[in-house]
Specification:
Helices cover 54% and strands 19% of the residues. It is α+β, with helices and mostly antiparallel strands. Strands 1, 2, 3 and 4 form a 4-stranded mixed sheet that branches. Strand 2 and strand 3 form a beta hairpin. Helix 2 packs across helix 4.
């Protein structure tokens, strides 16, 4: 039995030594990688692509959608936003969804394509509303995020009077 204990200890010591050696190799590899990275940085300082920083600023799609929805609601003759079934269910439980009626897609070159579904006032000129929405959304996104708008797709989901819209929204409350 004592022999087995010594063997176990020897095996444990061997495993420990192997683990220490493996960790030392990892450190060496990391150090080598750092040295290689530093030498590449020095060699490519004039190269614009080598000037990348570790800092970043990222917006969730929800933030962009919220900015777009709020900007759209600022446009005259836009009475409301038209959401999907999920938005309807959320509203039934009392949740106010500020991104209702808006989806965004980010292109490969970090520009934004915006899709908006709205309810407009009866009698208003839809092409003018489109121009106003496009201008307002583009201006707000640029001012708040610096993102460029690649396109705005406005879908008119309904045309109603302001009184009818107030009546509909008061029934849901």
């Amino acid at each position: 039995m004592a022999f087995n204990t010594k063997v176990d200890v020897a095996d444990t010591e061997l495993e420990t030594n192997e683990a220490v050696a493996a960790e030392a190799e990892d450190v060496t590899l990391e150090d080598d990688a750092l040295v290689e990275a530093e030498s590449e940085d020095e060699a490519g300082e004039d190269d614009e692509e080598a000037d990348e920083s570790e800092d970043s600023l990222t917006y969730s799609n929800g933030v962009i959608e919220k900015i777009v929805a709020m900007a759209t609601r600022e446009v005259p003759h836009v009475l409301g936003m038209k959401g999907n079934l999920m938005h309807f269910v959320q509203e039934q439980f009392g949740a106010e969804n500020l991104t209702k009626g808006v989806t965004v897609e980010v292109t490969d070159d970090n520009r934004v394509v915006v899709n908006i579904s709205v309810i407009i006032e009866y009698g208003a000129y839809a092409p003018a509303i489109f121009d106003d929405v496009k201008a307002r959304v583009t201006e707000r996104l640029a001012a708040m995020t610096g993102l460029e708008v690649a396109g705005v797709n406005l879908r008119i989901e309904d045309v109603i009077t302001p009184e009818e819209y107030e009546h509909r929204t008061s029934q849901h409350e």
